[in-house]
Design goal:
Blueprint (H helix, E strand, L loop, with lengths): L2 H14 L3 H42 L7
Helix pairs in contact: 1-2
Length: 68
């Protein structure tokens, strides 16, 4: 482990009142718990972008409604 990373983790561990090992485990668990939520958000953003792109393309290729 790089010294600067170790120092940052040790500092965080002291602030949180955890051992260095407990700090590392807590951070790993937190990152794994956030991953599915973050992936869902990214997927929703992609779906929205695709819907908007399809809508814009359809506006270009479909005939305009005739005025009455």
């Amino acid at each position: 482990m790089q010294n600067d990373l170790r120092e940052a983790l040790e500092s965080a561990a002291n602030i949180s009142g955890r051992s260095l090992n407990a700090e590392i485990v807590a951070r790993l668990q937190s990152s794994l718990e956030k991953a599915p939520n973050q992936q869902a958000s990214e997927l929703e953003a992609i779906q929205l972008a695709v819907r908007e792109a399809v809508r814009d393309e359809l506006k270009e290729i479909l005939p305009k409604p005739k005025a009455k």
